[in-house]
Amino acid sequence: MIGGRPVPKLGESGYVPGAVAIKSTGSVGLGLYVNRGTKESCDFRGTDGQSPILAGGEEQGLYEVSTTQNYLLGAREARPDGRVYRYGKAGTALNPQRAANNYNRHTAAANVTALVAGGTSVDILLTATTSGDTWFGVANNMVGGFYLQPDGTNAQMRGIKSHPAGADGETIDVELDEALAEDIVASAYTEWIKNPYSDLRTDSNHMSCMGIPNVTFASGEYGWFQTWGPRYIAPNAADVGSENAGSRHLVFHAGNVGNRNDLASGQLAGFIIGRTTAGSWTMPPIVMLQISP
């Protein structure tokens, strides 16, 4: 057990798989960590979803932004009162009163190398699209995303653990978080899905909210987004005053929240915590946010 000093950063060496560390200083990421990597390249993950600090990074508070990525995207931070946060990257300027939505699309590729069941990596021939800077063109840019191989009888989906940078026409090896259960035939249809916390924007059409920014973000900055628990979110002006006595559930509407009774569809945001006056939102609702616990 490692105690009394910082948890080893991602990629450090000298710690056997299963080694335990405790973070007892600072304000973020406190708790128990277990090395899920190797002795040559450690990967200490918190038992409550915390991420190790990345090489070259430093601790980043819940209400701080940084131009440096300090944690794995999607890292989780929880508070005893039920509030939960995820670490993400802003793709545009973001407002702490409004939703931050996943701007990413997945892409299909039929240029993978044959692999027998039990393999933990996939070789993919990159194209002009998948070799781009927002795909596999930058080393480990797709970490936290997913590999999917759907076919008529099977659907293998694994997390992306690591990968090198690759150029158009180059074949790279993508390491997965778990072994494959079925064979992959050459040129099988596959889909590659980006980390949903890697490009968060205020655009709302055809997108889902991944969290509410804790503070104001500039495009390209990293920081924390609340995904669960008590939170203020600005109501949509078109929905103010539309609720009735039984209206409690809220959905995201144009980046804000609106009344579920009056909207035919929309991603569930949560429910109003406090007492309200029917037909009036003179006091903006405090929401029990319900995106990702």
Describe the structure.
This protein folds into three domains: 1-59, no CATH class; 61-104 and 196-293, no CATH class; 107-193, Thrombin, subunit H (Beta Barrel). It is mostly beta strands and 293 residues long. The mean pLDDT is 87. It has strands at 20-23, 31-35, 44-46, 76-78, 84-89, 100-102, 107-109, 121-125, 146-150, 155-162, 171-176, 190-193, 200-201, 209-213, 222-232, 249-253, 256-259, 268-272, 286-290. A hairpin with an 8-residue loop joins β2 and β3 (44-46). It contains no helices and 19 strands. The strands form three sheets. Strands 4, 5, 6, 13, 14, 15, 16, 17, 18 and 19 form a ten-stranded antiparallel β-sheet that branches.
Question: How many whole angstroms does the radius of gyration measure?
Answer: 21 Å
Structural class: mainly beta
Order of helices and strands: EEEEEEEEEEEEEEEEEEE
Q: What is the overall number of helices?
A: 0
**Strand element count:** 19
Head-to-tail CA distance between termini:
29 Å
Kindly give the count of domains. Answer: 3
β content, as a range? 25-35%
Helix content: under 10%
| Biggest beta sheet attributes | 10 strands, antiparallel
Overall body shape: globular
Mean pLDDT across every amino acid position: 87
Q: pLDDT below 50 for ≥5 consecutive residues: which ranges?
A: none
